Amino acid sequence: MKLLTTLLAALSPTATVLATTSSDDPVQQQSTAVFLKIASSNATIDGMFLSAYHIGAAQQTLGLFYGPPQPNDTSAIFYWNTTVTDGVAADVGVLYWTMPAAGNLTAWFSLDFAYTSGTNVVGTSVSAGSGAQGVGWDNNDRLFVDGTMVDDSNFVPEDHPVPIYPIGIRLQQWHACWILFAPYYYYALAWVTAEMPHNPTCQPVSVVKVLGHSILIVGWLPFQPDLSTRTG
């Protein structure tokens, strides 16, 4: 079993690997910096970007703003980490946002969902907690959530249901909504669990990966609220 030394090496224009392990074990692969762009049939929000907006101690949500972001705008830079086994990268990984910490360290915050009872609209949460939602990119660089789907509208007693899709379905139920993260009220990325969103401000969107070096730097304007709430 040949041992690999710790390295930080470019595998492609979009990936690096950091690992000290055997060649048979999975290693972590991290993308280069990416921005997250909104695609929508609504021209008002189509082409906006996502950024970390403060909602609490060591916790952010993904708010919308008019871009493009500046290359050093850390509030809008994200990374996608996955594993590589026997030279094959997994389709599903974790989306991260980073923030400088004390002692020249970097704090890593993973994307997860912030569920609230009473609504089918789920806010996005980027925090330093242990939770992380498995996500990946489809062939069009659009962000998907890894999961299963069961139509519980057809459930009957004692008749065990079968998922209508196998494990690994690529769900894309993203919406842009005005969401209350008390006391903050943001136009932010959300996830609708099923059917029509309970929140009437929600509009369906896609989240598209854009490599940092491909951004054309021009003037940009924030979406409400102003950028004083953005982190970074």
Keywords:
globular, 13-stranded antiparallel beta sheet, disordered N terminus, 232 residues, 3-stranded antiparallel beta sheet, 0% helix, 47% strand, signal, mainly beta, DUF7907, 20 strands, DUF7907 domain-containing protein
Low-confidence stretches: 1-22, 215-228
Number of helices: 0
Q: Using DSSP, what is the number of strands? A: 20
Assembly level: single chain
Helix vs. strand class: mainly beta
Total domain units: 1
Integer average pLDDT = 79
What is the global morphology?
globular
Task: Give the N-terminus to C-terminus distance in angstroms.
Answer: 43 Å
Which percent band covers the strand fraction? over 45%
The run of helices and strands is: EEEEEEEEEEEEEEEEEEEE
**How does the major sheet shape up?**
13 strands, antiparallel
- Radius of gyration, in Å, reads 19 Å
> Can you give the helix content as a percent range?
under 10%
Task: Walk me through what this model shows.
This protein is mainly β. It has one domain. The chain is built from no helices and 20 strands. The chain has strands spanning 3-4, 9-12, 15-18, 21-22, 27-31, 34-39, 49-56, 59-65, 78-85, 88-89, 94-101, 105-114, 121-127, 135-137, 143-147, 169-171, 174-181, 184-192, 203-204, 206-211. The strands form four sheets. Strands 2, 3, 5, 7, 8, 9, 10, 11, 12, 13, 17, 18 and 19 form a 13-stranded antiparallel β-sheet that branches. It has a three-stranded antiparallel β-sheet with strand order 14-15-16, with no helix packed on it. A hairpin with a 2-residue loop joins strand 9 and strand 10 (88-89). The protein starts with a strand and ends in a 21-residue tail after the last strand. Keywords: Signal. Residues 1-19 form the signal peptide. This is DUF7907 domain-containing protein. Residues 35-210 form the DUF7907 domain. InterPro entries: DUF7907.
